[in-house]
Every structure is written in structure tokens, then in C-alpha cells.
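Supplementary Note 3. Input sequence used for the single-chain structure prediction.
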Amino acid sequence: MTRRMGYGAVLSMLLASACGSEGSGATYGTGGSAPWGTAGTSGGGTAGTSAGGGAGTSAGGTAGTSGGAAGTGGGPSGDGGAAWLTPPAVAPALAVPAGASVKLHAHAVGVQIYTCNASSTPAAWALKAPDAKLFDEAGAQMGTHGAGPSWTANDGSVAVGMKVIELPSPSPDAIPWLLLRVSSNSGTGAFSDVTYVQRLSTAGGKAPAIGCDATTDGMEARVGYSAEYYFFAGGGTAAWLTPPEVPGAIALPTGLKLKLHFRGIGAQIYGCLASGGADAGASTTYAWSFKAPDALLYDMGYVPAGLHGAGPSWTASDSSVITAREIARADSPQPDAVPWLLLKEFSTTGPGAFSDVAFIQRVNTAGGQTPTTPCDATNADTQVRVPYAADYYFFVSTDTPL
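The predicted structure, written as C-alpha cells, is reproduced below.
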């Protein structure tokens, strides 16, 4: 039988909390720079792009511990519709795939519910479910957030999500920031066409760090939290194999059709190189030089489907490989992102998914630009990994059967 801990016992544990998150899925080490940390050198941490936005709180107060109720009303006032629907900058791994755009934004206030599992090694508090109210820009309740994880609008529409990316919150005392893919929708209304959800600007909610043992096995702890949820429409099943809209500079030649679309998440690797010097009869200069990409390729369900590496090359899970050469580029709409590219097949090996690909487009890029940290004699011959994400579209001749 589930038991709940008294207020005093829970409060003492909240003074020392550990990590907790909703949903299921992998945790990725491609966090951004400030506030996630600076670019890592070879063998160190990964670089990142800026990710801002402080944790939002309700003017009515955050949720209490066991026995306490979530604060209501008083959500963020915002600066108007456009600002309310603009997420803070995030690390590239948390960016949504091509075709998705913000539809709704809700401020959540409630609790993360944890259950003591004393039989695990070590004994630990496990996330059971979130329980929160969702508020719109004016502070009016627009829905609820609960187990699944799920989001239910006042109109009865429901979106159920699955965590696909998790990165640490900029606040050490807060649960992680997440990207979730919606696995099912029901009803007609606000959440009926939501495809992705970002959980950002979190405050509180981490699992208790102590107090789970044989004497508390099965007990629940309710930990107050708040977060901003951004709901996206588009970019889902129907759009995944729809060719993207691109600038004319990287438009495809005629006679091609789309075969595959993968989401790439990883790093662009740069090296600090020295040139000139006494032997060259000139002073030594230093500059960052692009070395190679290093990314995982994900399918529509965020299941790993291949690798992207030096060449540049793309290797499918069936071991087929394509290398390609850039033939055109266009600036990304995002000022801190690597360019969009059009690439032409140079070679292929092995039968399989990539064996007949003729052209590739890299679009919807996030992050990955040349490091802004100095390149000089102190770090010559070192490498830096700069997190990035992009959508890759693979095209074959219209004469090729799919």
C-alpha cells in the first residue's frame, strides 16, 4: 500500500535533493555553454551555445511538499503574445525537428511525486508522476499535467509524451530541461495536434537525496516545482518525409525525390592550429579549423538510426555508407548556427539505406559554430567539440524505386 510521509519528514529531505525527471528516455551530454558550461577541449566536456531564461515561478507560490497545495494564478504576465510564445534559447539537442513551430506556452505549478524504492541498489526515490496545473499568459488555468507524462487542456484534448532528450537545468536545484515527443493525442482542441513539448526554466522538483530505506519503502514524497512548457505543432508523422522549404541557393536539381530524413544530434569538432612561424619566414598565427562532425542520426521516433562523421560521411544502421561533397550553402536563420548545406554524393559503400542516395540537404541547424574562445599558443593542437543539431534529408533519383 502506498503511504505518504509527514510534512516534517519530507521537508527535512528536501533540504538535500537529487535529480529527478519526468518521462523516459536517454540523457545526452551535449549541453550548451553558459549556463551549461564552456566548450570542452579534447577529452573534456562538450561545448555549447547560449541557453538562457530563468526559472519561472507563480506569484501564488510554488507547490508545497506532502500535504501542501500548488499555488494558483499569478502566472508570468509576459510582454504580449509574441514574447509569450518565444522559448528561451536552448542547447541544440533540445531544439525541435524541422517543421515544428510553437503553438502554446503554459506555466506549470505543482509537484513531482516520488516513491521510495528500497529494493533498488542503492535504495532511491523513483519518479512516479508529475501533478501540476497549467496557466496561460494571463494567469488563468488552462489545463493540468499528470502521469504519462500527459497534458490535458480545459477543452478535454490530451497529449501524451515520451522524453527523448534531457539536459541539466542551469539551476543546480532544479529538475532537468527536456525535449519530449508526443506519442499520442486524443480529443479535439488545444492539444490535439501537438507533436513536441519542451520543458524549460525549471525550478525545484528534484528527488529527495536521503530518507529512502527499508523503513520508508513505498512511501511517497511530493516535491514542489514550476516549469515553462512550450507545445509545438507540425514536424510530426505527416511532415517527416515532406521535403523542406529551403533558400534558392541550396535548392535541389530536378529529377529527385525524398527517401530518408534523420535528425542529427552531436558536435562539430574544431582544432586550434598554428601556421607560419620562423621556418615559414613569418610570425606564427593561430586559428580554429573545422575537423569533422560527430553525431548520432535519429529517426522520427528518436531511435538511433546511424552515425555522421568525417568525410563528411553518413553510416546507416545497416552499415551502408555515403560520403558527400558540399556544393552550395545558405546562412542559417539562427544567428548562432552552422549554415544550411546542399551536398552531392561522392561515394557509397554497401547495400542498404544510403546505397542509392544522390543528394543531401542539411537544414534547421542549431549551434555548431566556430568556437568563440581564443585559439593561441596556450591551446594549439587541441580540439573543441561544439554541440549542434540539424535535420538531414536524403534524396534519390525519381527513377529509383522506394
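The two ends are 54 Å apart (CA to CA). Residues 250-397 form one domain.
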